[in-house]
Amino acid sequence: MTDTLTSFDAALTRRASLLTQLAGEDTDCVRLFHGVAEGVPGLTIDRYGPVLLVQTQASRPVVDDEIVARLADRAREALGLDLALAWNVRGGAAVEQPAFDHPGPFVGRELGAKYDVRPRHRGQDPLLFLDFRVARRLVRDRSKGASVLNLFAYTCGVGIAAMAGGAREVWNVDFARSALDVGRHNAALNGLDEKAFRTIEADAIPTMRQIADMPVKGRGARRGVVKVNARAFDVVVLDPPRWAKTPFGAVDVVNDYPSLLKPAIGCAKPGGLVIATNHVPDVTREAFEAIVRRTADKMGRPFTELSFLGPEADFPSFDGEPPLKIAVGVVS
Q1: Structure pTM?
Q2: Mapped to the 3 state alphabet, what secondary structure does 65-78 carry?
Q3: pLDDT tens-digit profile of 281-299?
Q4: Alpha-carbon distance 288 to 271, whole Å?
Q5: Cα–Cα–Cα angle for 251, 253, 259, rounded to 5 degrees
Q6: What is the dotted CATH code of the domain comprising 130-331?
Q7: How confident is the model over 156-171, as pLDDT tens digits?
Q8: 3.40.50.720, 3.40.50.2000, 3.30.750.80, 3.30.1490.190: which CATH number matches 2-116?
């Protein structure tokens, strides 16, 4: 117990200046403890607005009730806030969750925008991925007057950030209605124009291929798809999961990233910004960069600018190679 509490105290101390910075930016969603890099693998502690979210793995019981209660007390004392404690044990639908009976509402803020941050819902993942703040920050800063395509949108965090930055229109594409419902709730929380903030419940593969004016293939093509017209966007964000099987082909960011990146690039205007991610730890930044460059070159639309982002300081990496890699490029 002592080692865990000491590690958490040290993490809070390291974050002191970051917490001050984020508070000044109207952000109250932050990772307070990233256990894999801060001494307790299998434990993460996040603040989501009024909630303190502790997450552990069912297969790796690194804490018990007493430790979680003491960690919560340390966080409340350090932050000077009476946060509602939610302890979520990940690992499967059959895992019994510790009690959580706070009624809410649960609204968090990031860079001035509001987000639904309920700690308990249909899925196991949080409704806002905090390591992706760096990308939402970039999108907000680069979206004034722009058209933005948000692929694999989940709960539309990127789309909310784009609108906060002055985007004239955003398309959010995801196959999961429950995720887009949260995205629409987020839009309502921020008073966004429904005509400018569009959600498309559809498989991202055929959707972006249509936008890029590429043929749609696969079993789903025989059943029909959500029809969209070919066009081009100023900003395209591609944030796929590691792997998924769809009627239009597999989403496989380890073995076949080009099949996703090629149509995403095709959705961007000449001189447009493409932001593409890979979350897999085994894929190095250098390997990802080679794939990204090669794909654009083969399309005849090489990047005129290309840089990479990693998560902000609340997601430290023990080896300098964070799992989340974000390519940011301007295409010709």
Answers
A1: 0.95
A2: HHHHHHHHHHHHHH
A3: 999 999 999 999 999 999 9
A4: 21
A5: 65
A6: 3.40.50.150
A7: 999 999 999 999 999 9
A8: 3.30.750.80
